[in-house]
Amino acid sequence: MTAVAGAPAATTAQRGTHRSTKPRRRGKSPVLTLIMLVMFGYAVLPLFWLLANSSKTSADLFSTFGLWFGGDFHLFANIADTLSYNNGIFLRWFGNTVLYSVVGAGGAALLATIGGYALAKYDFPGRKLLFAVVLGAISIPGTALAVPTYLLFSQIGLVDTPWAVLIPSLCSPFGLYLMRVYAADAVPDSILESARIDGAGEFRIFRTIALRLLAPGFVTVLLFSLVATWNNYFLPLIVLNTPDWFPLTVGLNQWNAQANSGTSGAVDATYSLILTGSLLSIVPLIIAFLVLQRFWQSGLATGSVKQ
Amino acid sequence: MTAPATELRPAGARGLARPFLRLRVAGYAFFLPFFVVFLITVVAPLLYAIYLSFFQDRLIGGTVFAGLANYTRAVGDALFGAGLLRVALFLVVQVPIMLLIALGCALAIDSGRLRWPSLFRITIFMPYAVPAVVAALMWGYMYGDEFGLVGQIGDVFGVTLPDLMSRSWMLGSIGNMVTWEYVGYNMIILYAALRAIPEELYEAAEMDGAGAIRIAWSIKLPALRPALLVATVFSIIGSFQLFNEPNILQKLAPSVITTSYTPNMYAYNLAFNGQQINYSAAVAVVLGLVTVVVAYVVQLITARREQTL
């Protein structure tokens, strides 16, 4: 963030004489800021709505205005209700989501990093063909693969086990693409050469030198895979039947189905659970993005989209 | 790219062929783990789907080879056709709107003329971290004209606002949801590409007397073309894959969102509610083909002489 804000300032200082002729450095535009404030509202208001309504009692949810808090601040009571409902099934779903995301996204990012590094820095026969094949796979709708994946997995007995969610999460063609472009820039050939002259093995070079240089790219791929697995809905919906293995997304929609088919007495309470559960399910990802933003933004800027 | 620099190596330390071989083996070894997973999770299901699509499950005789029968059925299937048209309409309207907003935001944040640029960058991006399921539930409840936010706002002003979950509004309502989810993501991709433009280009342009608009038009937009292309292709793929949002909203508006509302929902319902696995596979393959063809054509039109590899 500071680097981004600092860059134009530094160049202005270097060539201060031209300041008056440079429109880019001409102070802030209130109109532009106002337009962006509208966008800010568009992005944030639904999230604020979720927060406000997660803090209401079931009665207030239907009787008070949606964009402000209700009479009592009921957020913590709602969280307690959500976590304890149905013997704490929500915590189980949360744990499943963490498992699928950490193992799936972590594995996907690692495989993409090693593979992308191989494509960028080693000249082996078939390299371009392999890359083209993987790149082509990006445009295959993942959902078109979900049904045959289910059928294949059901034949080898993986359906309704965590493996059915974990294994498909390990493959990220887009991650490989990103890492190949990133590694081409971030790992200078000269460093690899000098390490080789010093007698280092290829694996050791990767582990001790390349991996460090690739870190921002790795974090970027990790975060985007993390979002993909944390938010994954279609695949787990298909391959899982036992609620004990559901991730949050499938579980929340099961509550939603209950709320819209149940008797009216139960309905109100379930809506509160859904809203509070939704709020709880988005907090970890937002924290991850905020904490790691310096890494993933530089990872994107350095490599990913330059061609 | 990486010419093994044999000339750097002390002469006679090792044979010439050995380092070559060593690098090749290492290259394959590093690529192998990804490739194995790729074969299991992409290639195998894809081939299996194609295989399945050539068979039919008959009451008498069990599963038999049916040639292209499933495909001819899919091509003539009115439900499938209507779904495809629906996502095509969605694509033509929603994707340009979303990308233009994302482009505007990225240019604004990059312009240096905005107050609190990093605040805007983070907050507009934030909805991307929200699961589609949660986004659909949230917006679905807000859209509601009775107890939802839209209804409440209507009450405040004493008017009845249109029902955003009705037949005529539903596609637009889903479009708004998808825009909300992905506008920040596309903005970040474009913004990252803007940051990669060398500062000297701006300096040279300013020296030549170019203004902010001119710089945006003549330097930034051309430099953004590869990133815009990537964003467009991903958005096209996303539109054809549309499933999560309508599937969630189905519970809230079952009469509007049918089981074939999008081609993907159709393929899903054929397989899991209709037991027509072979036909579902054919539908999925056709959908995949349509997606690849459209994405490729768009790439051809926009990329001109640009290299994609």
Explained architecture:
The complex is a heterodimer of chains A (307) and B (309). Chain A has 307 residues and is mostly helical. Chain A folds into two domains: 30-73, no CATH class; 83-304, MetI-like (MetI-like fold, Orthogonal Bundle). In chain A, 77% of the residues lie in helices and 0% in strands. Chain A has helices at 2-14, 30-54, 58-63, 75-121, 127-138, 142-155, 163-169, 173-186, 189-197, 202-213, 215-230, 234-239, 248-261, 264-291, 293-304. The longest helix of chain A is centred in the first third of the chain and has 47 residues, at 75-121. Chain A is globular and about 75 Å long. Chain B has 309 residues and is mainly alpha-helical. Chain B has one domain (80-308): MetI-like fold. Chain B contains twelve helices and two strands, in the order αββααααααααααα. Chain B has a two-stranded antiparallel sheet. In chain B, a hairpin with a 3-residue loop joins strand 1 (55-58) and strand 2 (62-65). The longest helix of chain B has 36 residues, at 17-52. Classes of the chains: A mainly alpha (307), B mainly alpha (309). Chains A and B meet through helix 1, helix 2, helix 4, helix 5 and helix 6 of A and helix 1, helix 3, helix 4, helix 5 and helix 6 of B.
Low-confidence stretches of chain A: 1-24
CATH class placement of chain B: Mainly Alpha
Q: CATH H-level name of the largest domain in chain A... which superfamily?
A: MetI-like
Low-confidence stretches of chain B at least 5 residues in length (pLDDT < 50)? 1-16
Shape of chain A: globular
CATH class of the largest domain in chain A reads Mainly Alpha
Number of domains of chain B: 1
Q: Tell me the number of helical segments of chain B per DSSP (H or I, 4 or more residues long).
A: 12
> In sequence order, what are the helices and strands of chain A, one letter per element?
HHHHHHHHHHHHHHH
Alpha carbon gap, first and last residue of chain B: 13 Å
Reported CATH architecture of chain B: Orthogonal Bundle
